[in-house]
Amino acid sequence: MPTKRKIILLLSPFYLFFTLFFFSAVLKSFVTSLGYYPIVGLKKIGLQYYGSAFHSATFLASCERTFLFALFSTAMACLVGLGLAFLFNGRKNNFTRIFFKIAQLPVMLPHIFIVLALLQLISQTGLIPSLLVHLGIMASINHFPLLVNDPLQIGIILTYLWKEIPFVIVSLVLVLRQMDDRYKIVAVNLGATKWQNFWHISLPLIQPALINAFIINFAFNFGSYEVPYLLGNQQRELLPVYIYDLYVQGDLTQLPLTMSLNLILSLFSILFAGLLLKIGRFLPGGHTGGSK
Amino acid sequence: MRGGKRLKLLVLLVPLLILGGCAGNSKDSQSANKLPTNYQTALKQAKGQTVTYYGFGGSDTQNRWIDQVVTPMMKKKGITVKRVPMDIDTILNKLTTEKEANKKQGNIDVVWINGENFYNAKKLGLLDGPLNNKMLPNMKRYISASDPDVKRDMATPIDQLEVPYGNAQFVMIGSKKMFNGNYPTSAAKLLDWAKTNPGKLTYVAPPDFTGSAFIRNIIYETVGYQALNDAPATKAGIYKVIKPSLDYLNELKPYLWENGKTYPKTTAQMDKMFADHQIALDFSYNQMYAATQKSTGQFTNDAQTFLFDKGTIGNYNYLAVPKTAPNKAAAIVLINMMLSKKAQSEQLSLKYGAAIPPYSASKMPPEITDKLNDSAKKNNTVPVKTLAKKRIPEVSGKKIPIIEQLWKEHVLNAN
Predict the structure, then answer these.
(1) How many Cβ atoms are within 10 Å of B211's Cβ, its own excluded?
(2) Do A234 and B412 touch (CB under 8 A)?
(3) What is the pTM of this model?
(4) What pairing do the DSSP bridges indicate for beta strands B50-55 and B80-85?
């Protein structure tokens, strides 16, 4: 067991980097968001920019939309991932072993790769619609449903699922593999049904890993820029795109507002992650959970 | 335990000390050098130096021009060119941060800039000057000081803080087949065509540069340049003036691709839709775009460039020298080199993006005019004279984000 001192020393390179670059940047945005931006003559410190953020109907609508969207896409990834992880683990043969290996691939590929692949394949001028037209299955490419930049954000959801289902599978299967099979055998021996086995034994054991995966995916889906920028629908603009647009519009006097929006986004992500962790503690398998 | 705590505190403090150290050091750094007084001194001082050029990273053709044409020409003068590709917003942020940190010497010598970014850079006092005829012989030779684009950049007085080096003008590119040779050369004709051919037009959504320019061009068509130029740069003021234009765009909306419920996000997407005949009309801010696209096989002879009868928006790209530039002499030589006839006529070739020189119409060398007119015949682009005649200036960079905002509220999200 390493001592506390050793842990601190081991973490110090990361910590040094983190404080130097990340923390100082956050600090700078915080100071700017309070209205202190002397280079353009803004020196009045206060919460006025946060106030105007919470009074902006566009911002609030975008916030709500982004939250619900992130929640939905994350929940979907976690549910499907959970199901597949159990399926993999239940039947151990060569096929599932290869499938598991392949499932690790999307975890390694960056989001932008999938975004570009989707644009090339399923946009109306993409490969699949052209192929269908050439084969005579479809009369013209305009008949192909709009799957990128569409009002239901199908393109973004597909990207997230493609990347996050494997992530959930990989993190859960690693836990499932270490699980002591004897718990299950005992439970079955005592007459537990398959469902009881899942609910009372497997789920509590993998719950912390599942919550962690949920938090990581949610934080990404809530704050990601490039995926909604390229695949999203403009009428249903997501928060990161809204903030970045404001940032690059070039009006420097707007920078404090942009920074306050940025901090609201980050703070919300952190608070929501904290809430999820808290909930996780009370669920079966959490530190205080299990007992009633 | 106490020792552990002390250690923790120490570790916590170290980065902050380093941060403090950074701030302290920069104040003592040597004072920045000054701009040379004339070209001859600049040339002498610049020998053996390295000049760092921060240009728009997204244009392959222009990067190629710098690397294959300008850099070897500079090498002959004994100067090395280092090209750093970066978006102008990022460059400006970098310069702003340097100024905030009170840094006297940075690492950017020459920067590509225009419009609202120039407005900001000037306001923040980031740029050095004066850059003028005395220092730049090629500017004296080819650009007359009375050109409106030498005086103002998107309504911001230039005050010798930047030099034009590339000429851009908004052009429409239509499909011969789909328009049947009858191009919509006005907003009214465009609307009529859309009504009889629904779903065959669209435009890139702002804040994309090209989409934003299309909307401004529609404003020029419907209410005129003067009205927009005279409008105060406030949301209410601009809304009042451009209301007919927003109405026009809303009338057009149901006849657009996907009933105007969604728009392409990038020009690349729109180019592809145009090449596949999904839409009949493409736009570009490069007059020769149809030609360069044809040379790479993206477009065919079906692509015909045309203008609105009332004209289209034109602007210039500029070069500037930051106050914190470490090698100002070499910066001057580089700018002069980029303005030279040799470099500019090389840039006319398709592999370098076929960018039109920023030269004044009266001072344009005949071989360049001939080259351009030749391309007009071969690649269905518009002759230089017509382009110059049908050129309308940009409005203030401050108004552009407001127009984009109004479009979002009243057109994109209108019911």
Answers:
(1) 23
(2) yes
(3) 0.79
(4) parallel
Length of chain B: 415
Q: Quick one: which H or E segment has residue B322?
A: strand B312-322
Give the integer Cα–Cα distance in Å for B372 and A136: 44
Amino acid B185 reads T
Is B404 near chain A, with CB under 8 Å? yes
Would you call B4 an interface residue with chain A, using a CB distance cutoff of 8 Å?
yes
Whether A28 contacts A19, CB under 8 Å: no
- Rounded CA-CA distance A268/A59 in Å is 14
Query: B111 pairs with which residues across the strands?
Result: B54, B320
Would residue B34 be called left, alpha or beta, if left means φ above 0 and alpha means ψ between -120 and 50 degrees? Answer: beta
Residue B189 neighbours by CB under 8 Å, 6+ apart: none
Cα separation of B96 and A37, whole Å? 11
> Residue B183: what pLDDT?
95
- Strand B50-55 and strand B110-113: the pairing is parallel
The answer to whether A196 faces chain B, any CB pair under 8 Å, is no
Which value does ipTM take for this structure?
0.73
Residue A38 distance to chain B (closest CA, Å):
9
DSSP state of A36: -
Asked whether the beta carbons of residue B7 and residue A245 sit closer than 8 angstroms, the reply is: no
Residue closest to A59 by CA, chosen among A223, A231, A240, A233? A240
**Dist. CA B358–CA B343, nearest whole Å:** 12
The token duo for B100 is 């905030």
User: Residue A100 has what pLDDT?
Assistant: 81
DSSP state letters, A153-189: -HHHHHHHHHHHHHHHHHHHHHHHHHS-HHHHHHHHH
> CB burial class (10 A; 0-12, 13-18, 19+) of residue B378?
exposed
| Angstrom distance (rounded) from CA A104 to CA A238 | 29
- Report pLDDT digits (tens) over B218-259: 999 999 999 999 999 999 999 999 999 999 999 999 999 989
The mean predicted confidence, pLDDT, of chain B is 88
